[in-house]
Amino acid sequence: MIKEYTPLQSFPLKTGSSFVRPAQILPERVKLSDPAVSVMTDLSKVSLVGVRAMTLMDKAVARMIRYGVRMLLVLDDDDHLAGLLTATDVMGEKPTRFLQDMGGTHADILVRDIMTAQRELEVLKIDDVQNAQVGQIVASLKKSHRQHALVVAEGADGRQTVCGLFSVTQIARQLGAQVQSFELAHTFAEIEAVIARS
Q1: pLDDT for 26
Q2: What is the C-alpha separation between 48 and 84, in angstroms, rounded?
Q3: Average pLDDT in the chain
Q4: Which one of 12, 162, 181, 192 is most buried, by most CB atoms within 10 A?
Q5: Domain ranges across the chain
Q6: CATH fold of 25-197
């Protein structure tokens, strides 16, 4: 049976070869009345950037910089979500507070020491997001006082799978705000300034 097929010619893999990374193209400009999915990072289209809970904080920061992200999903040894690590966690008061409480040096801090743990996270359901507008996502982020929101799909067994995420900074850019600061209050103020001009 296999005799009917001609094998393909193979070639040596060249030094420096890379691989395709999925890319999601979000609209450059949106309005508050646009569908919420137009500002959602879809994890079926974009590779997840994650880190292990036992990783040194400095290595996690280097990973954020390398991939140009301000949030990492923290995974346990079974690849289940253990928490989130954001640039705000790293640059804010959490590392200093941890060192005051536990001692040690900055180089000793692990991701698990300053991440937001899974038990503290709230999520949005994809079914709700698919019927929502950008303005509802902005209102949800503002109410939760968070820069990011995770979106989950829920199986028939009730198990959740993270399938997307929202970033207030990304939404602000897509709304046309000139994001000058990564401080949450400033970002919401910039969004509100854009809305007032519209």
Answers
A1: 87
A2: 12
A3: 86
A4: 162
A5: 25-197
A6: CBS-domain (3.10.580)
